[in-house]
Design a protein that fits this description.
Elements lengths: L13 H5 L3 H15 L4 H27 L12 E4 L6 H8 L5 E2 L3 H4 L2 H6 L4 H18 L3 H4 L11 H5 L6 H5 L3 H7 L5 H15 L11 E5 L7 H7 L4 E6 L2 H16 L8 H26 L5 E5 H6 L1 H12 L5 H13 L19 H7 L1 H7 L2
Parallel strand pairs: 1-3, 1-4, 2-3, 4-5
C-alpha cells in the first residue's frame, strides 16, 4: 500500500477545469494504484510524476488551442490506424510505413510531449534527451523488454501515449496491476478521450507542416484501440484501418509475457496466472465481437486485413499491398527505406523472446475454442 492516497495530490489541478472529464479517470486510476498495484516504495514517486506529466500535457494542449486557433483547423487528411490484438506485428508495420515520404508515424520523442513538439521547436533537443533518458531508465528496470517490444526515442511509437494522458487507456492496466481501474475503463465511452487524442495529434503534426500548409498523413498504431473501435471511428470518421491478425494462442501468451515484463519495471510481485487470465479474457472476449461486427464497429470505414504470417514472411511485398490499399506509390525510395529498416532492426536484433502458455496457466484448447469464430472470419 502507498503511504498516501495519490489522488489527493491532484485535487484542485487546473487541468480539471481546462479538460472536463479527466478527473474521474485520475481518481479511478490513482485509487487503484494505491490499493492494488503493489508498487515498490521507490517507484511510487516516479509513477505519480507520470500522472502529473499527463495532466500537464493536456492542460498545455488546451492552452495552446486557445492561443493558436489554427491548431484546431489543421487538416489531418485521412489518417491511418494500425489495429489488431497485441503481438501481431504492428510495431514492424508502423516502422515500415513511417519510411514512406507521404506518411508520418509519430516518433516516441514527439509523442512524449506533443505540445513542445508542435509549437516549441526550441525545446526539441531537450525533449529528445529527456526521452532518451526515459528509455534508458525503462530498460534498466525491465532488461528483457528490448527483446519483446523494442522502443527507441527516435523511432515511431504507439499513440496510447496520447490517450493515456486522459487516463482512459488500457496501457495503464498493462503497466500496473489495477483491476478496479480496468473494470471501470471497459464500461466507459472513449469518445471524449479520443477527441483529446485528436487535439494532441493536431498539435504534434503542426511541426510537420509543408510550405502549402498541408501535413503528411499520420499513421497511428496502438493495439488497445481495437477494444474501442466504435468510439475511435466516431472521432476519426475519415480514417482508414489496417487490421493485423495472428494465431490467438500466440497472441495471448506473448501479451501475458509482455505484461509480466512491463509490470516488473515497477513491482516485484507478479501473479502469472492472474496476468494470463486477464489477457486471455480480454482477447477471447473481444474476438467474437470482431468476428460478428468488426465492419460495423468501424462504421464502414476502409480496412485492410493483413495476416501476421504474410507480413513477417515477405515485408516488402506486404508493403506493396498496403500502398495499394492506401493509394500511395510504392516508390524506389520507400522500398529502400523498408529494406534499410529490415537490415538494421531484424526480429532478434535486440534479443530473443521466449514464452509459453503453460507458465501463465493458459489452456491452448480453451483459447482455440473461444476464438473459433474469429479464426474462421479472419483466416488465422
Amino acid at each position: 500500500m502507498m503511504a498516501v492516497q495519490p489522488y489527493d495530490v491532484y485535487l484542485g489541478s487546473p487541468a480539471f477545469d481546462l479538460v472536463p472529464g479527466v478527473e474521474e479517470g485520475v481518481r479511478r486510476f490513482t485509487a487503484a494504484l494505491d490499493a492494488e498495484a503493489r508498487l515498490r516504495p521507490g517507484d511510487v514517486e516516479p509513477v505519480l510524476r507520470s500522472v502529473e506529466r499527463g495532466l500537464q500535457i493536456l492542460s498545455d494542449t488546451a492552452q495552446a488551442r486557445r492561443h493558436r486557433p489554427k491548431l484546431a483547423r489543421l487538416d489531418l487528411g485521412r489518417p491511418v490506424f494500425v489495429i489488431g490484438f497485441l503481438r501481431t506485428g504492428s510495431t514492424l508495420l508502423h516502422n515500415l510505413l513511417g519510411r514512406h515520404e507521404e506518411l508520418h508515424s509519430p516518433l516516441l520523442w514527439e509523442l512524449a510531449n506533443p505540445v513542445d513538439t508542435g509549437i516549441h521547436p526550441q525545446e526539441h533537443r531537450a525533449l529528445r534527451r529527456w526521452t532518451e533518458d526515459y528509455v534508458a531508465d525503462y530498460y534498466a528496470k525491465a532488461p528483457a523488454l528490448p527483446g519483446i517490444h523494442y522502443i527507441d526515442a527516435h523511432l515511431p511509437d504507439e499513440c496510447h501515449r496520447l490517450l493515456a494522458n486522459t487516463f482512459h487507456s488500457m496501457v495503464l492496466e498493462m503497466r500496473y496491476r489495477v483491476p478496479s481501474y480496468g473494470y471501470w475503463l471497459h464500461r466507459q465511452s472513449l469518445v471524449e478521450p479520443y477527441r483529446w487524442h485528436r487535439r494532441q495529434l493536431q498539435t504534434l503534426m503542426w511541426a510537420h507542416r509543408r510550405a502549402d500548409g498541408s501535413v503528411p498523413t499520420p499513421v497511428l498504431k496502438c493495439p488497445f484501440h481495437t477494444w474501442f473501435l466504435r468510439d475511435l471511428a466516431q472521432v476519426y470518421p475519415e480514417a482508414r484501418f489496417i487490421h493485423l491478425h495472428r494465431d490467438p494462442v500466440q497472441v495471448v501468451a506473448s501479451t501475458a509475457s509482455l505484461c509480466r515484463t512491463v509490470r516488473g519495471a515497477r513491482s516485484g510481485e507478479q501473479d502469472l496466472k492472474e496476468i494470463g487470465a486477464l489477457w486471455s479474457g480480454r482477447i477471447t472476449g473481444l474476438s467474437g465481437e470482431l468476428a460478428e461486427g468488426r465492419d460495423d464497429l468501424l462504421g464502414g470505414a476502409p480496412v485492410l486485413d493483413l495476416p501476421y504470417r504474410k507480413l513477417v514472411a515477405d515485408p516488402v511485398e506486404a508493403m506493396r499491398e498496403v500502398c495499394s490499399f492506401l493509394e500511395l506509390p510504392f516508390s524506389d525510395s520507400f522500398r529502400a527505406g523498408v529494406e534499410d529498416h529490415l537490415r538494421n532492426h531484424s526480429q532478434r536484433a535486440h534479443g530473443g523472446h521466449r514464452y509459453g502458455p503453460a507458465e501463465f496457466g493458459l489452456d491452448e484448447a480453451a483459447i482455440l475454442r473461444a476464438t473459433a469464430s474469429y479464426r474462421a472470419r479472419f483466416g488465422v
